[in-house]
Prior knowledge:
The structure is a single chain. The protein is 44% helix and 25% strand. The chain is α+β, with helices and mostly antiparallel strands. The protein has a single domain (2-360), classed as Kinesin motor domain (Kinesin). Strands 1, 2, 6, 7, 8, 9, 12, 15, 18, 19 and 20 form an eleven-stranded mixed β-sheet that branches. A three-stranded antiparallel β-sheet has the order 3-4-5, with helices on one face. The longest helix has 100 residues, at 362-461. 33% of the residues are buried.
Amino acid sequence: MCFSxxxxxxxxxxxxxxxxxxxxxxxxxxxxxxLQAECKKLKLKKNNWxxxxxxxxxxxGENSSQKRIYEVVAKPVVESVLEGYNGTVMAYGxxxxxxxxxxxxxxxxxxxxxxxxxxxxxxxLSSMSLETDSMAVSYLQLYLESxxxxxxxxxTNIPIVEDSKTGEVSLPGAAIVEIKDxxxxxxxxxxxxxxxxxADTKMNTESSRSHAILIIHLQRSLKMKEENTVSIPSDAxxxxxxxxxxxxxxxxxxxDLAGSExxxxxxxxxxxxxxxxxxxxxxxxxxxCINALAENSSHIPTRDSKLTRMLRDSFGGTARTSLVVTIGxxxxxxxxxxxxxxxxxxxxxxxxxxxxxxxxxxxxxxxKVEDEVDHLTxxxxxxxxxxxxxxxxxxxxxxxxxxxxxxxxxxxxMQIENLEKEKHQFExxxxxxxxxxxxxxxxxxxxxxxxxxxxxxxNEKK
Length: 462
Ligand SMILES: Nc1ncnc2c1ncn2[C@@H]1O[C@H](COP(=O)(O)OP(=O)(O)OP(=O)(O)O)[C@@H](O)[C@H]1O
């Protein structure tokens, strides 16, 4: 399911307090800015006679706290990311005007100093459930037009891949580290800070020589959606009964750009001139995209630099975007300040189409189906074993019965044979008796004849 909404890029302006050099100028310090914070306006003075007023979504004076900046600039974007939309928070401005301070300050010792990155990660960690949701980060720098991994510095020249259908940008090969707690957040940001290119210039003792991009990948589970059946796209059409796990996947980009610099002012030399050239080139191509988008031009030169390719979704894309433009107070930098202010003004005209996409959580679904298959397989195996055992028992019983039958057969054959033998014996004995009887009868007859003869002789003698 997909929900879309129009959402203008929000732009806040922050002015840095005077730095040590500016304070040292004392009464000689000349400023070109005047804040009208209550009506969210900045008056930019070109000279004593000419000035222009600019309206912003918010104006922060030099005493504004990091907490307030987070709450006004970043919090609405983070909340939106927690709801499933993509988001971008970015700082843009001349070198030494407070971009890294606003975005990347760790504030480990003093929590009030914490910048947008730490606060955003802290906010997300406290709003999600580690049981059902997950958060992972990639931290990259764009240095001399090469994308490098700040968490795994051996990975350089990471490709930027754009999905031709969805326009989604990915960086295959970049480390994606799952985050569990705030301590881990500090560790990773510290590693990133150590690996980021920085140099001492006349404008800033810790000047970033690369654009830093923290990408927070968030995945939140939605309650199971009641559906009777769901079609699983595959070669064969299957249907899965029951609940369908849904997730919201969103991405938050927090970008600390390197600052534009004039080499005559920054005093860059040797390799640093090369760095400054690349920084200025990528910022100028970002400026061109912002102009084209603000003017609704039909061609947006996104492909002109890696920076604009990486920020494709942030301006004119599907992300909710908030931009802080940082300026210094000094009149010496009027022209850079003016160009920063105009960049912010143009960015305010850009309207993004934020989009919420509910996705079927195929990973969980796959696991669920896999569990089910496992369960059925082990059930089947158990049943098969049971059947096997039953079969073996039956076979055993059959064998016993067969043996019994065989024995029975053997026994009865023998009995019949014995009986027959006995019968023959009886018949033989009867036959002998009959013979004996006949013999006896013969003898009797002889004896009877003798008796008759004797009686006759006796009678004659009398
Ligand atoms: N609002 C602020 N309050 C106090 N100190 C600030 C503020 N903004 C900037 N600073 C200080 O000013 C100096 C320059 O700031 P930072 O390094 O953030 O500038 P940057 O715009 O990131 O510069 P670059 O583009 O050269 O990296 C740092 O010492 C920083 O601590």
